[in-house]
Amino acid sequence: MSEESVVTTRQVSIRRIDVPDLHDATSVGSIAIDLLAPDPVAYGVESSVSTGLPAPGGGVAFPVGFPVGFGAAGVDGRARFTNDGTAPAPVRFRVSGGLPDGFSLRCVETGDALTFRRPVASDDYVLLDSSDGSALLNGVSPVSGYLTDDDWWQVGPGETCTVQFTSLGGVQGLPLLVLSGSPAYF
After folding, report:
1. Sign, CA torsion 132/135/138/140
2. Cα–Cα distance for residue pair 29/173, rounded to 1 Å
3. Whether residue 59 has pLDDT greater than 90
4. At residue 3, does pLDDT exceed 70?
5. What integer best gives the mean pLDDT of the chain?
6. 131-172: per-residue pLDDT in tens?
7. Which residue, among 130, 153, 125, 157, has the nearest Cα to 140 in the 3D structure?
């Protein structure tokens, strides 16, 4: 797929519009619009993937009978995002509650970590955005002061980031990590 066929979006502001003098004109030749894109990168379609905290599988029950049952599969607590674009792509994390001691997110490939040391109630969530380094409780209240590790990262062009989701202590309910990102293009 060529870059020309990729649908992208940009946030821009209009700086100036030049409209030719229309006095005694029978048609308009052209109109010039100057735009400013604070983020000059274009983004493709957003994708999201979710995971719960790591949990062991069922394993083999003894005494072993035939056929052998291996139990339910475990959960590795990992979410992956691949940037198919040509520019580094920021990622966003939404961690839902039930984490009385907080949580950690670690990029397995680089070792960069985000560690949030504050209770997250079962009906709360924390939004973390690597594009601006923000941390918001329930999407509105700034809580970046509770990040004890804030090694923000972006995913390079053609690279994959595997995020390990870990609780810093006890767990209540079923905490969930949703990892979102869009391929980025120069």
Report:
1. negative
2. 64
3. no
4. no
5. 88
6. 999 999 999 999 999 999 999 999 999 999 999 999 999 999
7. 125
Comparing C-alpha atoms, which of 174, 120, 181, 113 is closest to residue 149? Answer: 113
- List of residues 6+ apart from 121 with CB closer than 8 A: 97, 98
Burial class (CB within 10 angstroms; exposed 0-12, middle 13-18, buried 19+) of 101: middle
Answer yes or no: are the C-beta atoms of 75 and 61 closer than 8 Å.
Answer: no
Q: Is the pTM of this model over 0.70?
A: yes
**pLDDT at residue 129 greater than cutoff 70:** yes
> Positive or negative CA dihedral for 68, 71, 77, 82?
positive
Question: Which pair of tokens denotes residue 95?
Answer: 């961690």
**Helix/strand/coil percentages in the chain, nearest 5:** 5, 45, 55
| Maximum separation of any 2 CA atoms in the chain, in Å | 96
Contact by Cβ (8 Å): 70, 124: no
Which structure tokens are listed for 140? 């509105």
What is the C-alpha to C-alpha distance for residues 16 and 35, in angstroms, rounded to an integer?
7
| For range 98-115, the mean pLDDT | 97
**The residue to which tokens 């509105």 are assigned:** 140
